[in-house]
Amino acid sequence: MRLAILSDIHGNSIALDAVLADIQKQGGVDGYWILGDFSALGHDPVGVLERVTALPNASFTRGNTDRYIITGERPGPTLEEAQTQPHLVARLAELAANFAWTQGFIQARGWWDWLAQLPLEIRLTLTNGIRVLGVHAAPGLDDGPGIHPALSEEELRKALAPAEADLVIVGHTHFPLERRVDNIHVLNLGSVSNPIIPSLQASYALLDANTNDYQLQQRFVDYDHQAVVEAIQKISHPAEKFLTQFMRGEKISPWAQI
């Protein structure tokens, strides 16, 4: 059995197409897991949903931004924070416009119910008995700090405690990593879009499993960042400045130095 596992597409169909093409170059897969953050922030929220739901044997979880679209929650800053810290007003306004724009697309094109019904997690037991958990941020969570390189071994152990799994696969932080603590193997996929790694590549993973063992291969894929910038600008996207910073390598994470 072979699965392609990806997350954090964020409305970027150009990056998604590059990843899907790479999957086929690697020989294809038997199924797909897509672990949330499908539409919000990017230039093509519905195009992404149309592509992923057309994939064979695909399973999905929700991410925090999928939940924000449906519930009206926001990642911050809050109105109260902006009132006391005026430099946050522009950020708050951009977020409000961005999510309102995406919500309008989702509602108008009939994807609201699909997004609202996404589950928190996917579970699978391989033929060799290995229990696999796919979730957006961390076991039991679609939000929060997630699994990132700055976690100590004890912090990672605590984050994985609710997993009830041998292999945990997450996204959310946009930073790829692979670690083990006790008997749990954890892989962070990184992200398809909005890269924070120096190469600015999309990342995803292939899981190959047989009756004896499994192998994980993390893949890094080039795509046309300028084409994404032009697509964002063409539609006068309300978060143009924020999104193009990722495409131009202006949002590299300090974790890249760890």
Automatic annotation (TrEMBL):
SUPFAM superfamilies: Metallo-dependent phosphatases (SSF56300). It comes from the Bacteria. Gene3D superfamilies: 3.60.21.10. InterPro entries: Ap4A_hydrolase, Calcineurin-like_PHP_lpxH, Metallo-depent_PP-like, Pesterase_MJ0912. It holds the Pfam family Metallophos_2. Residues 1-211 form the Calcineurin-like phosphoesterase domain. PANTHER family: BLL5683 PROTEIN (PTHR42850:SF2), METALLOPHOSPHOESTERASE (PTHR42850). Belongs to the metallophosphoesterase superfamily. YfcE family. This is Calcineurin-like phosphoesterase domain-containing protein. It comes from Ktedonobacter robiniae.
